[in-house]
Amino acid sequence: MHVAHLTLHNFRSYADVDVALEPGATAFIGRNGQGKTNLVEAIDYLSRLSSHRVATDAPLVRAGADQAVVRASVVKEGRTALLEVELNPGRANRARINRSPLPRPREIIGLVRTVVFAPDDLTLVKGDPSDRRKMLDDLLVLRTPRLAGVRSDYDRILRQRNSLLKTAGVARGTSRDAAMSTLEIWDDNLARVGAELLGARLALVEDLRPYLGKAYEAVARGASRDDADLEYRASVDVGSPDQDLRTALLDALAVRRKEELDRGISLVGPHRDELLLTLGNAELRLPVKGYASHGESWSFALALRLASYDLLRADGDDPILVLDDVFAELDAERRSQLAQLVAGAEQVLVTAAVAADVPASLQGVRFLVADGAVTRDD
Ligand SMILES: Nc1ncnc2c1ncn2[C@@H]1O[C@H](COP(=O)(O)OP(=O)(O)OP(=O)(O)O)[C@@H](O)[C@H]1O
Ligand SMILES: [Mg+2]
User: Fold this and answer.
1) What is its main location (predicted)?
2) pLDDT digits (tens, 9 = 90+) for 46-88
């Protein structure tokens, strides 16, 4: 797929901007802070209705405005669709496809699929487990849009269950009895929805593994296919392949009941899981976090994104690949290696402060980004 046209209104630093795009490679060049990332962020926002940079919509709306609009025409297997999202922080967002309103904005998720690699992605390997869970869940939702609902249901269940645990932990007598019986309902909810999320993550990690090894070999100099690996560490025992995840979660909840009541938080479920990233060989395998060098960590983060790209591509339509500010970090050899690797992508959007950093093969179409305007540089 590719974006053929992007229109922004009051999105980030842009009052109004209108850019015609083409398949193949496009480079956005401009000094720091001119709005390059803001452009690609808008396309990424359409794919999941959330930004890779912030957790809420408010910063996406231009300072002083109360609404932003992102509109893109997307070409997929020869057919064009016009997607539009209106961001209304504090109120409900609205989405339209081909000018028809959708009952729920969430229905737009998955129609555009993007994979973004940006320097912030170093947090994928160096950051908290929550950063890695988010990466998995974002990828899950792009592959299976229905899971966006499962994910938000799970978050809601967790919040309600945590507040109930706090109440039940301090309650006495009949109010405690009432809280404990309500807790059982929330245990069931957590186990049911949690099992769905957990099962999807476990399957995703298995699907991603072969692509990760290949991608790391391609981006890290001198690496081989088995160097990079990942392993899902669940907070419950998911040992046997036919393990009923729901039962496993319920059993684990029963075991930790007292501790949960004492601490007033849910200690079991996919929100406590870790995605372990490792580098090494048969003799020595070490976690990336805390052990890998800066260069290795960076290559690993890039490999995770490229593996995601390859996995989505294997599912069907090519996603849109965004390489935000990536080339400045690489030496000449690795620049051309990466350029070769992504050369076959249907659409690659590259941003850079300095044009010379971007390999010639990725400068198919070049735009200059300055003073709130995006102009084609032919
Ligand atoms: N909601 C907003 N309203 C107005 N301006 C904003 C908003 N959000 C971000 N900006 C401005 O947008 C600019 C950052 O744009 P962006 O991140 O796209 O820069 P960039 O061209 O990618 O720079 P770099 O090369 O440093 O990555 C900043 O100057 C910031 O103040
Ligand atoms: Mg930027």
Assistant:
1) cytoplasm
2) 999 999 889 899 999 999 999 999 999 999 999 999 999 999 9
**At 345, which amino acid appears?**
A
Q: Judge contact between 233 and 274, C-beta under 8 A.
A: yes
Distance CA 328, CA 283 (A): 34
The structural domain count of the chain equals 2
**Are residues 288 and 331 both part of a single domain?**
no
Range of the domain at 297: 120-316
Q: Whose CA is nearest to atom 9 of ligand 1?
A: 12
Same domain for 215 and 78: no
Whole-angstrom distance, CA of residue 143 vs CA of residue 139: 6
For a mutational test of ligand 1's pocket, the pick from 9, 11, 12, i.e. the residue with the most ligand atoms closer than 8 A to its C-beta, is 12
Amino acid at site 230: L
Last residue of a domain, one of 316, 346, 369: 316
* Residue 287, φ and ψ in degrees, nearest 5: -65, 150
With 0.85 as the threshold, say if the pTM is over it.
yes
The label of the residue with tokens 């690659």 reads 348
Residue closest to 132 by CA, chosen among 309, 303, 315, 301: 301
